Amino acid sequence: MRRVSRLTVAGAATASLALALSACGGTSTEASSQDQEGKSDKGLAIAYDVGGKGDQSFNDAAYAGLRKAEKEFGYETTDVEPTEGETDADKTQRLVSLAKQGYNPVIGVGYAYAAAVKEAAAKYPDVTFGIVDDSTIQAENVADLVFSEEQASYLAGVAAAKATRTNTVGFVGGVDIPLIHKFEAGFKQGVEDTNPKAKVLSQYLTQTAEEGGFSSPDKGKTAAESQIEKKADVVYQAAGLSGQGVIEAAAANKVWAIGVDSDQYEQQALAKYKDHILTSATKDVAKAVYNLAKSVEDGKPESGIVRGDLKTGEVGLADSNPRFKDDTELQQAIETAKEKIISGEIKVRTS
Predict the structure, then answer these.
(1) Where are the beta strands (DSSP E) in 84-134?
(2) CB contact at 8 A, 189 and 349
(3) Are 160 and 258 in contact, with CB atoms under 8 Å apart?
(4) Are the beta carbons of 245 and 216 closer than 8 angstroms?
(5) Does domain 8-147+285-308 have CATH number 3.40.50.2300?
(6) CA distance linking residue 44 with residue 77, whole number of Å
(7) For residues 149 and 214, is the Cβ–Cβ distance under 8 A?
(8) Strand pairing class (45-47; 40-41)
(9) Distance between CA atoms of residues 317 and 164, nearest Å
(10) Contacts of residue 22, Cβ cutoff 8 Å, sequence gap at least 6
């Protein structure tokens, strides 16, 4: 298949640029149109959010999309881990280095890449950039890959309200930011609409990502244990890697956990806890990443806001746990809520 609008590198520069990438890329002044002439092309590159690969959630879903593109298109891909305490300048240098090496598209996984994607995209207008979970850039060569997380969270709230025996459920958010507020708002509304007697205990682990809200399973475990002590028997987490601690606490106390982003019942690293993972509110980051790569491969790069929701099938509720899947009453309640959200009869709050 013929590739279009690719940037490339000369073979002699490969080693030095790879070294630069490991140090978060070259300087922000290195990119120019002259750099781009006569170079061979590469495919998709992703730069991970806090927590990195192995979070069994958000970042791993992005990696799954990269692997699918790599297999289907047969090109070279790369994925780059975050570093502790990095700045926006570090992120920008990382993306610039990836673009300069010839990767296209280049995706920043997570809202924290907003400033970096905006700057790198301006320097490399012939490269398609993507950012997951941010809708503020809207540049001609940037795809803002966003999701209606509140809709999937509403369904998680329906499930929690149906599953609770104590009329107390919990929500653990990784960082106190608007993105995670969407998860909490949808979940609370789903619980309240389904079981008005149920109450939701909410806790955010940190105020900023730098404090470890998305990367500290111990913080997630402590928060969940506190809610379980207050009689919560279903706990929903939107906390990245920290969510593993929430799931561990739920399993240890024989209550239900609800996972997030990926189908966490199916995650190998969480296998010993799976009997206590009721369901997961999913968003198909893998599909969004793959679709952007395919659009570039096809010569029609996506740009602007690209939204996944219940109607497109890119958010939803996993049914891998047989106890969840085989509960007819629960499934009917979820299907009814889903239909009402898609039709507009239910307007799901985002805050």
Answers:
(1) 106-109, 129-132
(2) yes
(3) yes
(4) yes
(5) yes
(6) 5
(7) no
(8) unpaired
(9) 17
(10) none
End-to-end alpha-carbon separation of the chain, Å?
Answer: 45
**259 strand-pairing partners:** 280
Instruction: Give the residue carrying structure tokens 């790369």.
Output: 78
Amino acid (one-letter) located at 143:
A
d(CA 190, CA 152): 10
pTM, to two decimals: 0.82
> Would you tell me the crossing angle of helices 149-163 and 178-194 to the nearest 10 degrees?
40
Class of domain 149-283+321-343: alpha beta
Residue 270 CA to residue 3 CA, distance in Å, equals 39
pLDDT digits (tens, 9 = 90+) for 131-187: 999 888 989 999 999 999 999 999 999 999 999 999 999 999 999 999 999 999 999
Beta-bridged to residue 108, according to DSSP, are: 47, 131
For residue range 255-264, what is the model confidence (pLDDT) as tens digits? 999 999 989 9
Query: 8-147+285-308 and 149-283+321-343 share one CATH topology?
Result: yes
d(CA 127, CA 103): 8
Higher confidence at residue 163 or residue 33? 163
Residue 127's nearest CA partner among 154, 102, 90 is: 102
User: Which sequence spans correspond to the domains of the chain?
Assistant: 8-147+285-308, 149-283+321-343
3-state secondary structure of 304: strand
Handedness of CA 110, 114, 119, 125 (dihedral sign): positive
Residue 260, burial from CB neighbour count under 10 angstroms (0-12, 13-18, 19+): buried
- How many angstroms from the chain centroid is the CA of residue 114? 14
The DSSP call for residue 141 is: T
Strand 168-175 and strand 234-238: the pairing is: parallel
- What is the CB neighbour count within 10 angstroms for residue 298? 10
CA distance 103 to 97: 9
Tokens 């640029």 correspond to what residue?
A: 17
The rounded distance, in Å, linking the Cα atoms of 106 and 109 is 10
Extract the tokens encoding 244. Answer: 């593993």
